[in-house]
Amino acid sequence: MSSTMLKLYESSGSPNSRRVRFFLAEKGICLSRVPVDLGAKEQVSEAYARINPRRVVPTLVLADGTAIGEVPAIQLYLEETHPNSPLLGSSAREKALVAMWDRQMEQEGFAVVMETVRNAAAGLKGRAIAGPHAYEQIPALVERGHQRIADFHADLEARLGETAFVAGERFSVADITAIVAIDFATKALNLPIPKSNAETRRWCDSVASRPSFAA
Amino acid sequence: MSSTMLKLYESSGSPNSRRVRFFLAEKGICLSRVPVDLGAKEQVSEAYARINPRRVVPTLVLADGTAIGEVPAIQLYLEETHPNSPLLGSSAREKALVAMWDRQMEQEGFAVVMETVRNAAAGLKGRAIAGPHAYEQIPALVERGHQRIADFHADLEARLGETAFVAGERFSVADITAIVAIDFATKALNLPIPKSNAETRRWCDSVASRPSFAA
């Protein structure tokens, strides 16, 4: 399915961009991708600020020029306009449960990994929070982040002992958010899923076997 | 409009509960409310944990017993089942813009106010993050919180110079999230909107004049 009137500004190394790429691949949506070079700090350039004043990736630009930032907002637009293979749930009850679980995966997993990385990375001094404002790193957040990631791993293991996927018996956006968080914690912080977490490893193998995982 | 098969577990003093009460009042939805006494720590009781294992308020319980936690997930369920007076947008484009602005109001406003209060309050030592896990307070987050709230006030003033409401020309959930954050910053941290922020004060008067504001 092609939507060549849509443009996605994104970066190959950005976990938030990966959440959108994974979503697009699951739904088989093709659109124009515009790489933003984070290494060269292109996201803080005046040219990019005219596209997204928050100066973060990804941004989805619609045919009429409307710019949508924030990963869940981009995913909502894509789901509404491409309702095939729903990733945000079908009934009101299922949509609410997917939203609840996706938010927990983000707030207790994804956002914690990002916070831990941003408060530790030497290259992000004075840039501890993505966006237009400069905030100093807080070392105590790195220590707390390690504890919170361990809690996230334990909570996810318990949840996946009850259901096949994070939000229930169907694959959903909550699985995408969780696996991207887990993958980034492994690569950027060397904090992989504990070997004894059998349920999470079973789920991880299943999610990683989807072609969209490579997106 | 009555939905007596729905039960909302909530607390009068909880800003997250207020976000849901405001939303219900705007849509004219009546449901059964069950007060949870946060002063008596009822939310960490075993009885409440059986309703919501995250041990936070609010929780919406459906007629079939399904428990929905997380404010945006509860609001999504209510919008899907009561589509009158939409607060989450109508078209795909509008839904995405409302989601984007609501998230910015939450992440840069509401969540920052909550973080600042939780990391400062004497009664919340060892409970700096709501939920089932114990995390110590981090004093540096209180200092950063004051800076972030000042940035939030300035960014909101700039935005409201462009549009009547946060997400555009129509009142939406993003206005609810923003006004509850602003009100709580004023009351709990003595950080009101700066007097010179004329656009925000114009918007604030308009939002506070809605009957739902008292919910």
Provide a compact summary of the structure:
Chain A contains seven helices and four strands. Chain A has helices at residues 15-27, 46-51, 71-81, 92-120, 139-160, 173-189, 198-208; strands at residues 2-10, 30-35, 59-61, 67-69.
Topology, please?
2 copies of one chain form a homodimer.
Chain A: E1 2-10, H1 15-27, E2 30-35, H2 46-51, E3 59-61, E4 67-69, H3 71-81, H4 92-120, H5 139-160, H6 173-189, H7 198-208
Parallel strand pairs in A: 1-2
Antiparallel strand pairs in A: 1-3, 3-4
Helix pairs in contact in A: 1-3, 1-6, 4-5, 4-6, 5-7
Quickly list its features.
Glutathione S-transferase Yfyf (Class Pi), Chain A, domain 2, globular, alpha+beta, 215 residues, 2 domains, homodimer, 4-stranded mixed beta sheet, Glutaredoxin
**CATH fold annotation of the largest domain in chain A:** Glutathione S-transferase Yfyf (Class Pi), Chain A, domain 2
Quaternary class? homodimer
Biggest interface and residues each = A-B, 38 and 39 residues
- In DSSP terms (H or I, runs of 4 or more residues), the helix count of chain A works out at 7
Strand content of chain A: 5-15%
The total strand number of chain A stands at 4
Name of the CATH class of the largest domain in chain A = Mainly Alpha
The helix/strand series of chain A, from N terminus to C terminus, equals EHEHEEHHHHH
